[in-house]
């Protein structure tokens, strides 16, 4: 048996070896290092938006939506379970090594997309254990920026999603899907090289700890157990659960739904993503600032939930492209909900509960990332919304290439017309609208925040604290007099 002190020294030495084995990088750590890392990763996957859809449909032609939900559901649950552990160890070993790990495991399935689709989807699910690049990048940004500039830094991360799908669709049309997959692989490798040689470590040695990590710190359900202990925390978590569950499910299948059920072309999907992304950036900057300033966080949350309800309902009943574009604009406007929830928590939660409540909100969202896709896939399966009629296998193999593409278009139009005959084309989206409606009702129970004459809002908790202080001063004064 190795003595405890010796084990601690060996562990500490191993940590220092790991820290010194990586190149120091160039310059001081900044938000731009994290921005480039997340931009390249999202750019690589954004290029593959359409190849992923076609590979999914070819691999699971009969139950595409169900399998899509299962794959992303398993990935989301694994991410929920592993993210506290990886976050805790990044406080010990630093951010750079975990950026390498998360980017590698997130992007390693890309080359297998055409080589072995089954292994590709298996790796997609398993990669959820390490697919926490966003969390590590957030920690990296938090290490090098102040609190006021973080929200602006986080808003820039959506830029890669605006451009890459359109570029991928254009390159696939000029060359082939295999070329786009190879390019996505090259971008992922470039991201790893950038992290290894260029990105400096953001966590100073003095802030790292070699202490033993306790189970309470890495237990993903630890924060969730405390939800019922406080009415305010319970309300916030219920609102997040009911609103983010359909949003997570929507993200997992929406582009597949556009392409295979509504007949969107590859270019239309790319333009749709760019449209929603640009309007989301505007909504999360200009619109969010105006709503927060003149109405308050609670009212902004309610506005975002209202837009989400209308958007999901439109997705569920839409049978024409213009309705989907209109709903996409509403989806961009609804993106103000979660920044408003974070702002509301930072104002209303008690000072000693800020980390607890924010941790619970993130924990509920992580749980929804696993449950949402599985729920949407199951509802699609329950209502028998599948793609059996999308493309005839015999037709695909017997006709020439040009005629084959024509036949695919004909089959897609036939499937689209058959979809129009359904009473409810997208049942999971209508169910999501119902959940968001319940979330809006719970939002009415939150404390009010009212604007002052100068346009800023004063939360009810501030008034309550002032009243409590006045009562304490009055009691102490009476006690002195007696």
Automatic annotation (TrEMBL):
Pfam families: MFS_1 (PF07690). The keyword Electron transport does not apply. One of its GO terms (molecular function) is transmembrane transporter activity. Gene3D superfamilies: MFS general substrate transporter like domains (1.20.1250.20). GO terms for cellular component: membrane. Coiled coil: none annotated. Residues 1-10 have a biased composition (Basic residues). Signal peptide: none annotated. It is found in: Membrane. Residues 1-21 are annotated as: Disordered. It is a multi-pass membrane protein. Keywords: Membrane, Transmembrane, Transmembrane helix, Transport. This is Major facilitator superfamily (MFS) profile domain-containing protein. It comes from Adineta ricciae.
């Amino acid at each position: 048996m190795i003595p405890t002190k010796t084990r601690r020294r060996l562990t500490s030495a191993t940590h220092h070896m790991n820290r010194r084995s990586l190149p120091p990088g160039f310059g001081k750590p900044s938000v731009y290092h994290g921005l480039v890392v997340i931009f390249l990763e999202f750019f690589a996957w954004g290029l593959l938006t359409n190849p992923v859809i076609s590979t999914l449909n070819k691999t699971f032609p009969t139950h595409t939506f169900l399998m899509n939900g299962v794959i992303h559901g398993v990935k989301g649950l694994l991410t929920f379970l592993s993210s506290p552990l990886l976050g805790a160890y990044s406080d010990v070993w630093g951010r750079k090594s975990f950026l390498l790990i998360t980017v590698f495991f997130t992007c390693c399935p890309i080359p297998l997309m055409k080589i072995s689709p089954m292994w590709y989807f298996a790796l997609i699910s398993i990669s959820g254990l390490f697919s926490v690049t966003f969390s590590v990048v957030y920690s990296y940004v938090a290490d090098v920026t102040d609190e006021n500039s973080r929200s602006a830094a986080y808003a820039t991360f959506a830029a890669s999603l605006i451009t890459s799908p359109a570029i991928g669709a254009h390159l696939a049309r000029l060359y082939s899907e295999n070329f786009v997959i190879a390019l996505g692989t090259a971008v992922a490798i470039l991201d790893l090289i950038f992290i290894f040689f260029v990105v400096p470590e953001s966590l100073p040695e003095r802030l790292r700890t070699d202490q033993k990590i306790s189970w309470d710190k890495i237990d993903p359900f630890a924060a969730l157990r405390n939800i019922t202990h406080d009415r305010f925390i319970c309300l916030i978590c219920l609102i997040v659960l009911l609103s983010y569950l359909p949003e997570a499910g929507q993200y997992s299948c929406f582009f597949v739904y556009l392409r295979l059920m509504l007949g969107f072309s590859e270019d239309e999907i790319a333009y749709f993503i760019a449209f929603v992304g640009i309007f989301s950036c505007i909504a999360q900057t200009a619109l969010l600032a105006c709503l927060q300033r003149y109405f308050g966080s609670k009212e902004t949350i309610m506005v975002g939930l209202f837009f989400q309800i209308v958007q999901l309902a439109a997705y569920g009943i839409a049978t024409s492209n213009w309705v989907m574009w209109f709903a996409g604009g509403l989806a961009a406007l609804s993106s103000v909900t979660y920044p408003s929830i974070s702002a509301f928590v930072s104002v209303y939660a008690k000072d000693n509960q800020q980390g607890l409540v924010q941790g619970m909100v993130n924990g509920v969202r992580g749980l929804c990332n696993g449950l949402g896709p599985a729920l949407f896939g199951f509802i699609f399966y329950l209502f028998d919304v599948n793609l059996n009629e999308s493309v005839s296998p015999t037709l695909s193999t017997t006709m020439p290439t040009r005629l084959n593409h024509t036949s695919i278009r004909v089959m897609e139009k036939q499937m689209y017309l058959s979809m129009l005959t359904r009473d409810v084309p997208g049942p999971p989206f209508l169910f999501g609208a119902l959940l968001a409606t319940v979330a809006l009702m719970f939002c009415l129970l939150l404390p009010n925040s009212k604007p002052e004459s100068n346009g800023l809002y004063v939360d009810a908790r501030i008034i309550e604290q002032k009243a409590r202080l006045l009562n304490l001063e009055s009691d102490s004064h009476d006690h002195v007099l007696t």
